[in-house]
């Protein structure tokens, strides 16, 4: 395992082992757009990471992992302090694992396997019986891990995409988007359905939910999150959040804190 400093350059593809593990604690870090031939499992022990792929934004909360297939162009943005582990798998192991990116749940067994594999030296003998069994079981657990709904598909149509702000800013109302893009409301709905599988209003609500979760995971108060997302007060925001995930923002925040601590 390599402990990485913020300015350390690391190339997982430069090694021949079937799996390579690293660890780091980074704050306010932006990886920039990059890709690697090896598939990556990025496990967040503490903190929150936003991952952007070509057609989606994913949120990686604590105690989950992002599966990133080899060759996929992506970007990781870490807010505050993020303590994470990364495993990089060669082509042979990657062939047994998902071919699409996803945020997956990390159960007790997978969590127990991640640390010793991440801590193994780059030259570790993965042919040894115990090491081979650990690695094989880890691969099986990743393949069987449940996918969590922590992603937002992005519109591909450039007329819509260029009118949407950066990820931290609330997307415009439908009428305003129509004015900015020069498209009719009906055309926007058709294009959004084609690109994201949902209408613009539903997509905007999903954006608000993702952003709300991110801000809550970063420790912001409920009142601040409500204001940030354009709600007139806490109560309509709480009602919105409960309607989307069947719990209140404060309960979600407490549960995620407990999950990260335990």
TrEMBL record:
<dbReference type="Pfam" id="PF02311">
    <property type="entry name" value="AraC_binding"/>
</dbReference>
<dbReference type="InterPro" id="IPR003313">
    <property type="entry name" value="AraC-bd"/>
</dbReference>
<protein>
    <submittedName>
        <fullName>Helix-turn-helix transcriptional regulator</fullName>
    </submittedName>
</protein>
<keyword id="KW-0804">Transcription</keyword>
<dbReference type="InterPro" id="IPR018060">
    <property type="entry name" value="HTH_AraC"/>
</dbReference>
<dbReference type="InterPro" id="IPR009057">
    <property type="entry name" value="Homeodomain-like_sf"/>
</dbReference>
<keyword id="KW-0238">DNA-binding</keyword>
<feature type="domain" description="HTH araC/xylS-type">
    <location>
        <begin position="174"/>
        <end position="255"/>
    </location>
</feature>
<keyword id="KW-0805">Transcription regulation</keyword>
<dbReference type="Pfam" id="PF12833">
    <property type="entry name" value="HTH_18"/>
</dbReference>
<dbReference type="InterPro" id="IPR011051">
    <property type="entry name" value="RmlC_Cupin_sf"/>
</dbReference>
């Amino acid at each position: 395992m390599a402990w990485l400093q913020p300015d350390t350059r690391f190339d997982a593809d430069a090694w021949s082992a079937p799996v390579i593990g690293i660890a780091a604690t980074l704050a306010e870090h932006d990886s920039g757009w990059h890709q690697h031939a090896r598939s990556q499992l990025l496990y967040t022990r503490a903190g929150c990471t936003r991952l952007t792929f070509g057609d989606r934004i994913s949120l990686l909360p604590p105690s989950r992992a992002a599966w990133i297939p080899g060759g996929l162009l992506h970007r990781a943005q870490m807010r505050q302090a993020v303590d994470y582990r990364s495993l990089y798998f060669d082509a042979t192991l990657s062939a047994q694992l998902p071919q699409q990116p996803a945020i997956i749940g990390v159960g007790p067994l997978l969590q127990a396997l991640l640390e010793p594999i991440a801590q193994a030296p780059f030259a570790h003998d993965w042919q040894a019986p115990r090491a081979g069994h650990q690695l094989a079981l880890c691969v099986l657990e990743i393949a069987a891990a449940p996918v969590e709904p922590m992603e937002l598909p992005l519109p591909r149509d450039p007329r819509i995409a260029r009118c949407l702000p950066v990820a931290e800013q609330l997307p415009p109302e439908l009428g305003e988007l129509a004015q900015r893009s020069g498209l009719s409301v009906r055309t926007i709905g058709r294009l959004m359905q084609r690109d994201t599988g949902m209408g613009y209003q539903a997509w905007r609500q999903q954006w608000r939910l993702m952003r709300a979760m991110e801000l809550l995971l970063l420790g912001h108060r409920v009142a601040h999150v409500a204001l940030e997302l354009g709600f007139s007060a806490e109560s309509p925001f709480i009602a919105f959040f409960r309607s989307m995930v069947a719990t209140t923002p404060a309960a979600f925040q407490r549960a995620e804190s407990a999950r990260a601590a335990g």
